[in-house]
Amino acid sequence: MHTRSVPSVKSITHPEGAIPDTIHTFAHSPQVRNRLLLGPISNHLRLHSIPDVPSYVPDILEHPIVHFSQRSDWDCGLACILMILDRRQRQTFLSQFQQICDEGQFGKSTWTIDLCYVLKDFNIPHKYLTKTIGANPNHRVNDYYKSYTLDMLRVNNKFRYAEQNGVDVKQCTVNYRFLIDHLGTYGNIILLISASLLYCDLCKFNKLPCEIRSCLSITPSYMGHYIVLCGYNKRLQKFMYRNPACKDKVCYIPYQALDKARKANGTDEDIILLYDKPT
Fold first, then answer.
1. pTM value?
2. Taking a C-beta distance cutoff of 8 angstroms, is the pair 224, 268 a contact?
3. Which of 5, 172, 204, 242 has the smallest count of CB within 10 Å of its CB?
4. Residues 80, 76, 57, 279: is their CA dihedral positive or negative?
């Protein structure tokens, strides 16, 4: 739920309430509803296996967005927000960057809930899906979460008052087919992933290290990082994404590889669904 992200490649560039008790919030068409199985799991929802990718979304889709590279090793989440804002909003964000950070009280330790409050301030329709409400106490022993004690009160308070502040948080997990459905129907997605498991099939970014670790059965340390999921290719079975740690380009990663990166221990499977089209 938190990131200090990976080192930046270059400075920022400028080409310039609750889920209903049914699955209908997620399954917005009869085709999808018929493919979903909902099972009671403790106190939260889980989407189970879906036999087929929804047939009504296009086979290939990419949402065009303006690329922004992070400026530091901690602001990848904010760079992702800059990618999905319109031109006027980006100008406002950049001119008030430090003020926004100060008002958010996150300093250089941004959690997903912090990003949601920023999105709300810019009136960006979104939903935050996570399997853990609040600061996950298991992260205390994770070396990556060095500022956990300092962040815990802020993060828990933002979760506690999310509903009354207009921030929509849902406790659930989803599979990759749900991500395809959202991309094809509504818009982009901001994902928290483990950077050590992220790679690109096109430019080969981080691919060799991932392959070596896989061959040697080495589990890499968690490194929180945000990316924008901006499309997919069903024929290639790959997602398209933009990585704020890289230059202006669209990267490709297989469905299962992305699932591994976004479900790594430390992410809490955090997803921010963005709505470019009406729900």
1. 0.78
2. no
3. 204
4. negative
